[in-house]
Amino acid sequence: MRGVEGPRFGAGPPVLTEEDTVPVPRSNSVMNMGRSLLFVALAAVAVVACGSGPAGHPAAGAGGPGSSAIPGDSGSSAAGSPSSGSTPSPDATKSPAPAANSIIEGTVSAGPISPVSRPGHKNSRPVPGDRVEAVRDGELVSVTYTDKSGRYRFTLPPGTYVIEAGPAGYRHTPKPQTVTALAESEHTVDFMLETGIR
Q1: Residue at 37 is within a domain
Q2: Total number of domains in the chain
Q3: Peptide bond into 157 cis (omega under 30)
Q4: Distance between CA atoms of 124 and 135, rounded to whole angstroms?
């Protein structure tokens, strides 16, 4: 091989001739090795993309059917079921049944409405809108008002009550009445307001 002279002052870049180049032999074995390396690289990329498992299926531990729903809870039972302990019996959670109530009802009327009473005719009239109170142990526990027929009704727990009706514009307040109401019982307490007609 002939040496290449260095560039002279003012001369252009050196020019190589065929005698100056070294031919590179082309070998089929080198090309085949390159193709094999390419196939190995493509196979490695495919394995990484599939999670190192079969195609279309996630690898174990990647959230598949075999993984635990709660990390670190390998000893827990099925979701929603307690892992230990027993279910309390229904009787232990039941609250005691309330006592059956009683009913106190009646009417508030005003009379007489005529100086002369006639057989077969009522000498009184109903008092609508009158206030009726139920008192127990000195405390007011319920209030109601009479309807257009003068009727009222209380639904109360068993006990002793004082039932009081208002004067409703009349001169005299009716006397309060005491009633002892038993469970699942009905009691009638009527009131008559004095009109003062004689």
Answers
A1: no
A2: 1
A3: no
A4: 27
For residue range 101-124, list pLDDT tens digits in order.
999 999 999 999 888 888 888 889
Identify the pLDDT of residue 17: 52
Domain presence at residue 128: yes
Task: Please state, in angstroms and rounded to a whole number, the distance separating the CA atoms of residues 2 and 176.
Answer: 143
Are 109 and 124 in contact by the 8 Å Cβ rule? The answer is: yes
Q: Which residues of the chain fall short of a pLDDT of 50?
A: 1-4, 6, 9, 21-22, 24, 52-81
H/E stretch holding 180: strand 177-181
> Which residues are within 8 A (CB) of 63 and not within 5 positions of it... i.e. 6 or more apart?
none
Are 84 and 168 in contact by the 8 Å Cβ rule? The answer is: no
Asked if the structure places residue 147 within a domain, the reply is yes
CB 194 within 8 A of CB 170: yes
Whose tokens are 């039941």? That residue is: 94
Sequence-distant (≥ 6) Cβ neighbours of residue 107 within 8 angstroms: 126, 146, 149, 150, 151, 152, 190, 191
Residue 43 placed within a domain: no
